[in-house]
Fold these 3 entries.
Entry 1:
Amino acid sequence: MSESGSFSFPLNQRLKSKKTSELVFATGLKIKASPIIVRFLDTPLREPVAAQVMVTVSKRKFKRAVDRNRIKRLMREAWRLEKPALENRLIADEKQRAIVFIFVGNAMPDYETVRLTIASLVHKMLPTKPDQD
């Protein structure tokens, strides 16, 4: 697995596999927190990392590539700062997870909104430990 607690976002942590991303959309769980939806699935990944992430923004809602790229950049930065908690839990549980963040808002967000939304989604995605009896 990857280094625990690292705030970097290297290329091997980006979800690029078409097969895996289709599997996430077909069978993954979905959590909504306006203006972002996250879909995720615990599945074996090709890389030895805890999680691989993909970010998407609708071309229909944001016609200009500059706007889409800006939103994706904000989402990647927010993920980079919020991921250590989730990664550490996944590493402890010896799981791997494919994650897709989808921006569904209609207006250009500010960084603080994106960061708070990603933080709440990461908190909701944390795997729960079964009670030890």
Entry 2:
Amino acid sequence: MTFKVMAEVQLRVDSAYPGDQGGGKARLDPETMLLLKISPGDLVVIEGKRRTVAKVWRALVEDWNQRKIRIDNFTRMNAGVSIGDTVKIATIHDEIEAKRVVLAPPEDLPKKIPIANNPHVMNGLIDFPVTINDSVPIMLGLPFVR
């Protein structure tokens, strides 16, 4: 996916809610969403040491007005950040849908795991936000594989 960046804000990174692990979600409070003129379901750019993308969801009330973003370990890894780091969050204008995504398993993955042409892998990535060189979670009945 390629994109043009519009409005941006800086937020502190916090861990994802337990049910959000591997979901490509960015939890933001309503004030931040209003400032960026975005709604739940929109995509945002998260920029740390690297740039990645995530789908916006509303944070729980106890996280409102905290100037933070809750993202999972895959999104943090893709942005090159850790919990407590500050990232830039920006809206996306002119999103371009990928025509093709190439999956390359990590070097340490056992060779016998059936990833190629596996419908569970493909279905799990439908509507999953990615940009070039991102790692994505793959569920194969095992813990997350990256």
Entry 3:
Amino acid sequence: MRKIYKKAMGIARGTALTLGVAVMMALLLGVATTALAGTGIGARFQLGQTNTVNAITKLVGSVAGPSLQIDNNSADATALDLQVEPGKAPMKVNSAAQVANLNSDKLDGKSANEIGVNGLVHFQNRL
């Protein structure tokens, strides 16, 4: 009976040691990968920091409202700043629908249908 007990205890100690080493390795690898998660493709988006990638970042969803809302409560700043190289369009859309408060359908305080063809010719002559 003592031989069986000694063998069982030896196996238990070996198992505990192996499991302990495995848990320690998992913790070390988990901490290391979390530390590196803020850089490169597939990394987390770090708020308050400059995030650099060399591939497109997409936000895809199926919600009833907007997928992304930016709310800057500062009185001295805008909510969105789009910067591109000279000659490049700062934004691209796939819809011809008008957006409230964004369309350039007014010229000198008048809508496009108030100017008409004669008004457009007159405006072009002023340029």
